[in-house]
Amino acid sequence: MDQSKSEELMNILGLSRRAGILLIGQDQVLGGGKHNEKLVVVVTSDCSANVLRSLKPRVERGEAILLKLEDTDRTTLGSYLGVGSAQIAALPHGGLAKKVLAIYDRSDANEQNQSL
Q1: Are 90 and 41 in contact (CB under 8 A)?
Q2: Which H/E stretch holds residue 55?
């Protein structure tokens, strides 16, 4: 993901935090949210294996969509969200989540085109 797309995505996550709809941290993401509510989950490149393992059942059941930010570490994500550090954040499926998916899909398609 190039820098401008990554920054655009981070800005939307920051906006979601200020709006009070963003879940931050593994306790809120994995334990929070309604179980029938679909989440768009964003993890950093240095996200721990334990967190990814805990998230896997929700992804397999279709309760979550996992987006890994390859060029973002927990300190960077935390600074955009106004916390010390964060390796995982999630948005309930809705308008802002769709925008995050669109940015992520657009950048992923661009990367695939460049690799051809």
Answers
A1: yes
A2: helix 49-60
Read off the CATH number of the domain in which 109 is found.
3.30.1330.30
Q: How many domains does the chain have?
A: 1
Q: DSSP readout, 37-87? A: S-EEEEEETT--HHHHHHHHHHHHTTSEEEEEETT--HHHHHHHHTSS--S
pTM of the predicted model as reported, rounded to 2 decimal places:
0.84
Q: Is the dihedral of CA 102, 62, 112, 48 positive or negative?
A: positive
- By residue range, what is the domain housing residue 7? 3-115
Mean pLDDT by runs of 10 across the 116 residues of the chain is: 80 92 91 74 94 93 90 91 92 90 73 34
Q: What digits encode the pLDDT tens for the residues 71-100?
A: 889 999 999 898 989 999 999 988 889 999
